[in-house]
Amino acid sequence: MARGVTGFMRQVARTGGRIAPVAPLIAAIALPAPAMADAPAPFWQGVRRVQVLCLVTDARGSNAGPLRDTLCRAARDRAAIGAPVPVTMLAQPGAPVLDAGAVTLLVHASVTDTRAGALMAVSVRPYRNQIQDGGPLFGTAPRAALIRGARDDAAIAALVGPAIDETLPWHPPAGPRRVPGRGAGSR
Questions:
Q1: Judging by DSSP bridges, how do beta strands 61-62 and 87-90 pair with one another?
Q2: Residue 128: strand, helix, or coil
Q3: Do residues 57 and 111 lie in contact, with contact meaning Cβ atoms separated by under 8 Å?
Q4: For the whole model, what pTM was predicted?
Q5: Alpha-carbon distance 128 to 106, whole Å?
Q6: DSSP letters of 142-166?
Q7: Which residues, 6+ apart, have CB-to-CB distance to 137 below 8 Å?
Q8: Each residue of 108-131: pLDDT tens digit?
Q9: Model confidence over 69-96: pLDDT tens digits?
Q10: Closest CA to 179 of 122, 124, 125, 141
């Protein structure tokens, strides 16, 4: 780096200080990024509340019982951490989902009985009823874990928590994600 800077300074001296053609490039490299980098994505601008709507399906179909309630409470509680707006739960879809000032976190869980126990897979997708910006097309990748039942609050919270963190702009990212099949140093 020092050699490059020294070479640049020699060039400036040879041209009598005329650096106008490279001045914008130097400014772009040296100056900090604009404040817009901290602005939320258009999808999240003007949001007045976040609401959580859960759907749990199992071999019998839609499960609107205690398992859904536990999942929704865990998702709401995680989303509320550091939230700049109120976070609530919805019991069923309806008019609140259509409010353009609300983002609805669609939390979908599928439960399959296995020999080892109940396997729950969870995915989260934010939805906002607006015309100008369709928002994310996909939600989080499904995550799965064995749970002991509807009252296994800790396992359900541990399962849905990272999906909520990945979805919300006010939750810090969990760090670099490892790409399966790639070790350190692979290209």
A1: unpaired
A2: coil
A3: yes
A4: 0.72
A5: 10
A6: PEEEEE-STT-HHHHHHHHHHHHHH
A7: none
A8: 999 999 999 999 999 999 999 875
A9: 999 999 999 999 999 999 999 998 989 9
A10: 141
